[in-house]
C-alpha cells in the first residue's frame, strides 16, 4: 500500500507488511477469537460483561463498583447495570463500605463462585486452543510485541499528535 499526495491509499503489490496491514490482521484475529470465546461463554448462560465482572471478582476478590468498571472496560453506567443484573441473579453481593457509604463493595456469592470457576476453566481451555499453533517461544514474543505496541499507543494517546 502506498499513500498518494491527497491522502488516499493506493494499492500496489505488497512487498512486506506495513503497520496498517498488521493492524487489520490483528483486528480480524481479535474479532475471530472474541466470537469463538463468546460463543463458549454464552453456552454457559453468561454474557460477555457478566463474565468479565465475575472473572475479575474471582481473581481480585471483593472490589468497589468504581474499581471494577475500568478493570473490565465498562462505563460507570454499564458496570452499575451489570452488577445489578448479577445481584438479581444471586451471583454477587453488594454492601456499603464501612469507611464511605457512597462506595459499594461487590463480592462473589457462593452461587457466583460455583458458576464462574468451571466457566473460567473452560475459557482457559478455549483460549489455549486458539493459541495452540504457537510455540511457547512464539507466545512470549507475541506477548512482548503486543505490550510494546500497547504501551506506545497509550503514550501516543496522551499527546495531541496527529490532531
UniProtKB/TrEMBL annotation:
SUPFAM superfamilies: Winged helix' DNA-binding domain. The keyword DNA-binding applies. SMART domains: HTH_MARR. Gene3D superfamilies: Winged helix-like DNA-binding domain superfamily/Winged helix DNA-binding domain. It comes from the Bacteria. InterPro entries: ArsR-like_HTH (IPR011991), HTH_MarR-typ (IPR000835), WH-like_DNA-bd_sf (IPR036388), WH_DNA-bd_sf (IPR036390). Coiled coil: none annotated. Keywords: DNA-binding, Transcription, Transcription regulation. Signal peptide: none annotated. One of its GO terms (molecular function) is DNA-binding transcription factor activity. Residues 19-151 form the HTH marR-type domain. PANTHER family: TRANSCRIPTIONAL REGULATOR, MARR, TRANSCRIPTIONAL REPRESSOR OF EMRAB OPERON. This is Transcriptional regulator, MarR family.
Amino acid at each position: 500500500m502506498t499513500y498518494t499526495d491527497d491522502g488516499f491509499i493506493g494499492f500496489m503489490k505488497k512487498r512486506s507488511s506495513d503497520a496498517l496491514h498488521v493492524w487489520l490482521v490483528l483486528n480480524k484475529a481479535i474479532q475471530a477469537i472474541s466470537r469463538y470465546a463468546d460463543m463458549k461463554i454464552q453456552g454457559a448462560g453468561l454474557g460477555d460483561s457478566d463474565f468479565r465482572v465475575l472473572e475479575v471478582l474471582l481473581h481480585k476478590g471483593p472490589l468497589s463498583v468504581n474499581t471494577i468498571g475500568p478493570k473490565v472496560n465498562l462505563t460507570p453506567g454499564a458496570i452499575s447495570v451489570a452488577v445489578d443484573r448479577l445481584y438479581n441473579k444471586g451471583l454477587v453481593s453488594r454492601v456499603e463500605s464501612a469507611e464511605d457509604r457512597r462506595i459499594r463493595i461487590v463480592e462473589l456469592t457462593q452461587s457466583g463462585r460455583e458458576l464462574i470457576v468451571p466457566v473460567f476453566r473452560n475459557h482457559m481451555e478455549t483460549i489455549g486452543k486458539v493459541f495452540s499453533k504457537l510455540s511457547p517461544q512464539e507466545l512470549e514474543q507475541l506477548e512482548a510485541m503486543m505490550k510494546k505496541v500497547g504501551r506506545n499507543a497509550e503514550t501516543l494517546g496522551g499527546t495531541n499528535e496527529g490532531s
